[in-house]
Recover the amino acids of this structure.
């Protein structure tokens, strides 16, 4: 994948290092709580994660399970023999003066992730994924001249995922990140929320000159990226900067840059320490890990359906448009909800209904999930499972629309009520008097009176003015207090005007 | 009443017979500490916890009065090397960087003795962070050998050894990394147990070389060591390197003959430079073991001489990492005049660590640094594998090994100064077993004349067992002590007061 | 193996220990002695030997994922050399 560059243009070469915080109850090596939402500083700390003298680490079993699961989800080979190493450097947020990480025997290696870029599948190879502990947080109150340290995060479990430099654009990087986030969430390994810092990205960026075959002889690492948007912007900014320099015959310096949100640009960071010599060696406090075939195959079997397979299935089974599928899949809980609504629909769709009916309803379910439902959920900042609308009632409402019991407009009103107060759609339709009139006799009588009362419009229509037809439909609907079935109203009106 | 040099089991008997209370016993030893210790005395204690000890003794007396099954250690005073974290009690590791440091929790070993209601009398002196073999690297000055106060007590657990030898406390917690229990026990003429690595929890013991560190005890007899071993051993969920293996009833299993026991004498342990008189004592001790029924054979451990070299790389490497947490940031000494963050690190560590600690940190950082790792650390760990294999092989043939603990008797204070190899040579007979994580004892086996003066100093017999084979070494040591009385000798000048 | 002063300074930088010139010289000499001493190890044939970093033979020592708040939290904060509220306070990192 690398090494081929036959284009006449500058080609970005991007590798990603991504830290994903694993969702365990306790920290990686001690039983202090792992809670990314804790706001009171130094609450979740103990003698171990603040490195009091004489304290020792003990590995969290769940972190091993989640790490293995994530490795498998990324198509990695899981190491039968793995171990932890110490990575030494000094920084105030690093209590022991070393980070427990994995050096030469990571838990997972040699994987890949296929991403969908504008309908084309692109494979990004995963070099390795290893377990390690997070550092605390340093805070710099503006203008204070001092820094503050909070160790709540110190020692929480991370999976660091390193890709090969297979990515060639900011957009690919973003899609990769979104896909990774989805995977992490689907397997229940974490929240992978960039804004909250439970997923962090450090891209390594360089650019090949036109026709250049080999990898560039430099790379620039960018830190401090805390959203998908910034990830894309920072990479784009760097790529532009490199192309500019390369075209002027310069080579960008191998440095670490930081994304400055306010200025929308990267700025060179002071190096964290004078020299990068981490002096890795096996942590003597932690016995080796031996992961059995059985352990690995049990986890492999326990993997849920991953986003790619889900997308494929939604396309094949439901024929949903790609964008809708992606939007659904990007919200794990909504997808789950959607699938539950679909099974409700399937449950009451009898053999007498055609497959087209089912697909129409599924499509409608997807639209409702992505539009009205999403909007309401977002407005109240909750997840589908927290809403008052049960999957059964959701499906029921869709059925009424399909059966023309109510109009779409009325259904929106009903849905808003369901969202606000709960309850089943039948009662709400009744209470609000929104039931749609499909009774042809009633509609005919309304149409008759409209034709009588609007002679001019009738004449105009007959003279060829299509606009007048719409007007007459509107008047008929008004006569029916908005509850007329529009299809039937149309049909009868057309017939009467002939 | 003469109590100073009684064994734990004898004191426990007196406590049960109501001949004496734990409070009286505690006051008795505290008085001796006041009399014989302090900077002008042996300098074996850095902190004396009189108030806490008396409170704990009151508690112990209540239990002794009400519970006929109280542990043999209930009410017995002890001291802990100042490397064991003690909740609310200053713990310095003999380093200025922890001069005012007060741990928030107890080391597991200390917690276990607390549970037994043993009485902590105080914290004993050691080489700074246990880096040394003489206690001379202590930031609080050297401890002195009770047999001759101008000589070193050995180290790093020199304070613990000197205190027990002078009858200031019946037993003491100590730690080994490469001889730090056996060597001072030998030089001070008392008994020391270095456990199998992983037998006793390291939790709360300030780390030196994590892959070697073995907390153990120093006491007056092998039986006392076995008593403490039963209490201190066992899996600790806070120390991943401790074993879940069953703990034998070491003390109850002791037997007074050695019939059917096969003992190896490794010829490489009679090293060049060994004092002939020390060598003579070892041969005499071996003769006693034969008397007891043991079959003694010569064995060979050709890699012995490389033990200290492996140690000289692995130990500093782990030290450089283990001492990284002492950075002036979260606890301990923070420099007064830091201009910026960099100064907090560089100056706090410059001011806080002594030369020996600095030397080891630098050596270790070098051995682990890019480009040197394979040549030093990796190479050492490969040779270490060979050392382990060599021991395993010899233990297919014998139940234990015996040899000298130290090739020489205690040297004068000052001899170690500025000799970066002093410890590696002083501990050369202890280090191989440490690198392999084996259990070992040092027990007194007579006296030899000092090389530089007309004075008799103690000689120690070392007994090394296979991994998890503490019972083997206890049995041999105990049998030896049933027909000898070297362990009953004590130095002059520390009589009743 | 004889170390240079430059190498000693580099290691001291990694280890974060401030050394003056005479200390650099002192440690240069002493470290060189130690490195000379250990160089004998080269004589041991370790071809094909796997390194050992732990002697217990233990593996997969894991703990269940149970969380609890530490009873020592306040005492740990109280022992910070400098603090601001519950934060540890240090010289500015920036």
């Amino acid at each position: 994948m690398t090494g081929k560059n036959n284009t006449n243009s500058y080609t970005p070469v991007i590798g990603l290092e991504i830290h994903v915080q694993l969702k365990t109850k306790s920290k990686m090596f001690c039983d202090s709580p792992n809670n990314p939402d804790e706001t009171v500083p130094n609450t979740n700390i103990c003698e171990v994660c603040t490195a009091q003298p004489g304290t020792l680490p003990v590995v969290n079993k769940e972190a091993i399970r989640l790490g293995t699961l994530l490795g498998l989800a990324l198509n990695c080979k899981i190491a039968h023999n793995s171990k932890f190493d110490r990575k030494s450097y000094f920084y105030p947020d690093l209590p022991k003066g070393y980070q427990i990480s994995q050096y030469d025997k990571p838990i997972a290696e040699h994987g890949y992730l296929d991403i969908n870029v504008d309908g084309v599948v692109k494979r990004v190879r995963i070099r390795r994924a290893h377990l390690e502990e997070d550092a605390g947080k340093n805070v710099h109150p503006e203008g204070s001249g001092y820094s503050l340290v909070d160790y709540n995060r110190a020692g929480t479990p991370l999976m660091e995922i390193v890709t090969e430099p297979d990515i060639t654009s900011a957009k690919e990087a973003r899609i990769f990140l979104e896909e990774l986030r989805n995977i992490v969430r689907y397997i229940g390994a974490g929240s992978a929320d960039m804004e909250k810092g439970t997923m962090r990205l450090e891209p390594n960026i360089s650019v090949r000159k036109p026709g250049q075959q080999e990898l560039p002889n430099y790379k620039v690492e960018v830190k401090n990226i805390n959203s998908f948007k910034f990830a894309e912007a920072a990479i784009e900014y760097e790529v532009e900067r490199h192309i500019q320099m390369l075209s002027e015959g310069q080579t960008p310096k191998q440095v670490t840059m930081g994304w400055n949100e306010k200025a929308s640009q990267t700025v060179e960071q002071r190096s964290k320490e004078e020299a990068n010599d981490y002096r890795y060696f096996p942590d003597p406090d932690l016995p080796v890990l031996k992961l059995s075939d059985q352990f690995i195959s049990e986890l492999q079997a326990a993997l849920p359906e991953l986003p790619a397979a889900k997308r494929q299935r939604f396309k094949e089974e439901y024929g949903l448009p790609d964008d809708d599928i992606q939007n659904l899949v990007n919200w794990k809980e909504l997808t789950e909800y959607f699938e539950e609504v679909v099974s409700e629909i399937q449950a009451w769709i009898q053999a007498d209904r055609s497959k087209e009916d089912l697909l129409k309803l599924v499509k409608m379910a997807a639209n409702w999930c992505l539009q009205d439902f999403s909007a309401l959920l977002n407005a109240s900042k909750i997840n589908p499972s927290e809403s008052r609308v049960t999957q059964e009632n959701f499906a029921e409402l869709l059925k009424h629309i399909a059966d023309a019991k109510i109009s779409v407009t009325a259904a929106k009103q009903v849905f808003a009520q369901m969202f606000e107060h709960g309850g089943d759609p039948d009662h709400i339709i009744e209470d609000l008097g929104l039931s749609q009139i499909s009774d042809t006799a009633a509609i005919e009588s309304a149409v008759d009176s409209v034709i009588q009362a609007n002679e001019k419009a009738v004449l105009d229509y007959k003279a060829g003015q299509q606009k007048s037809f719409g007007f007459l439909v509107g008047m008929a609907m008004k006569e029916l207090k908005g509850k007329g079935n529009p299809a039937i109203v149309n049909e009868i009106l057309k017939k009467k005007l002939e | 009443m003469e109590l100073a040099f009684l064994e734990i089991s004898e004191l426990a008997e007196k406590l049960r017979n109501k001949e004496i209370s734990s409070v009286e016993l505690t006051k008795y030893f505290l008085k001796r500490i006041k009399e014989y210790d302090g900077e002008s005395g042996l300098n074996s204690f850095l902190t004396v916890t009189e108030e806490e000890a008396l409170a704990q003794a009151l508690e112990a007396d209540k239990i002794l009065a009400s519970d006929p099954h109280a542990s043999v250690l209930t009410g017995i005073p002890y001291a802990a090397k100042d490397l064991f974290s003690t909740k609310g009690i200053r713990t310095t590791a003999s380093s200025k960087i922890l001069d005012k440091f007060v741990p928030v929790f107890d080391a597991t070993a200390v917690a276990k003795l607390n549970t037994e209601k043993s009485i902590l009398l105080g914290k004993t002196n050691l080489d700074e962070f246990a880096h040394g073999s003489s206690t001379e690297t202590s930031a609080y000055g050297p401890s002195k050998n009770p047999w001759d106060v101008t000589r070193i007590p050995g180290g790093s657990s020199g304070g613990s050894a000197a205190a027990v030898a002078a009858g200031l406390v019946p037993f003491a917690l100590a730690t080994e990394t490469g001889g730090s229990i056996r060597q001072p026990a030998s030089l001070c003429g008392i008994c020391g147990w270095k456990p199998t690595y992983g037998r006793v929890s390291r939790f709360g013991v300030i780390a030196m070389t994590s892959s070697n560190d073995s907390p153990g005890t120093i006491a007056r007899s092998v039986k006392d060591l076995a008593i403490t071993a039963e209490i201190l051993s066992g899996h600790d969920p806070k120390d991943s390197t401790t074993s879940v293996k069953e703990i034998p009833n070491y003390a109850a299993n002791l037997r007074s003959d050695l019939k059917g026991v096969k003992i190896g004498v490794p010829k490489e342990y009679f090293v060049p430079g060994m004092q002939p008189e020390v060598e003579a004592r070892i041969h005499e001790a071996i003769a006693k073991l034969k008397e007891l029924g043991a079959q003694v054979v010569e064995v060979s451990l050709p890699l012995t001489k490389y033990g200290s070299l492996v140690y000289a790389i692995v130990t500093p490497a782990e030290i450089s990492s283990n001492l990284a947490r002492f950075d002036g940031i979260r606890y301990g000494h923070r420099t007064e005049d830091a201009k910026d963050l960099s100064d907090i690190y560089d100056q706090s560590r410059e001011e806080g660590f002594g030369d020996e600690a600095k030397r080891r940190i630098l050596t270790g950082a070098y051995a682990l640094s890019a480009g040197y790792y394979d040549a030093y650390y990796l190479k050492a760990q490969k040779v270490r594998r060979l050392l382990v294999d060599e021991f395993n092989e010899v233990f297919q043939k014998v139940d234990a090994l015996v040899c000298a603990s130290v090739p020489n008797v205690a040297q004068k204070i000052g001899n170690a100064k500025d000799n970066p190899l002093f410890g590696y040579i002083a501990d050369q007979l202890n280090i191989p077993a440490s690198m392999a994580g084996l259990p070992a004892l040092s027990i007194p086996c007579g006296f030899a004349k000092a090389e530089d003066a007309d004075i008799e100093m103690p000689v120690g017999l070392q007994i090394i067992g296979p991994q998890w084979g503490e019972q083997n070494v206890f049995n041999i040591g105990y049998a030896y002590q049933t027909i000898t009385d070297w362990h009953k000798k004590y130095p002059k000048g520390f009589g009743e007061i | 193996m004889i170390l240079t002063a430059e190498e000693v300074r580099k290691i001291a930088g990694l280890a974060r220990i401030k050394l003056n010139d005479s200390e650099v010289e002192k440690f240069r000499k002493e470290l060189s002695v130690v490195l000379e001493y250990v160089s004998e190890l080269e004589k041991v044939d370790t071809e094909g030997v796997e390194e050992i970093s732990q002697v217990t033979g233990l593996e997969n020592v894991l703990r269940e994922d149970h969380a609890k708040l530490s009873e020592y939290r306040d005492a740990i904060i109280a022992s910070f050399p400098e603090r601001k509220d519950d934060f540890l306070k240090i010289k500015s990192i920036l």
User: Anything to note?
Assistant: Chain A has a mean pLDDT of 90. The two ends of chain A are 67 Å apart (CA to CA). The CA atoms of residues 414 and 428 of chain A lie 6 Å apart.
